[in-house]
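Design request, tokens follow.
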């Protein structure tokens, strides 16, 4: 795989609810899947990187462990 292919992005906006009740709203790169639902069912990674907005208006990257995600809603 060439470097350009490895860094392609296909962001989808989603809200994720974690097992402790925390909600994260942001965007996930699901470049290998057409739909967010396919990503959550079939992605092999243990951790998902999610870009979320913070109160000061900037963005940060969160690492979410898929074992603790109880629901996800695509926008």
């Amino acid at each position: 795989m060439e470097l350009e292919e490895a860094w392609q992005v296909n962001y989808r906006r989603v809200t994720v609810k974690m097992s402790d009740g925390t909600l994260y709203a942001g965007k996930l790169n699901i470049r290998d899947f057409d739909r967010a639902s396919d990503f959550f069912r079939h992605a092999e990674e243990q951790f998902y990187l999610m870009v979320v907005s913070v109160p000061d208006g900037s963005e940060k990257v969160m690492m979410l462990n898929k074992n603790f995600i109880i629901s996800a809603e695509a926008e």
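Comment from the thread starter after seeing the answer: thanks! Helices lie at 3-6, 36-42.
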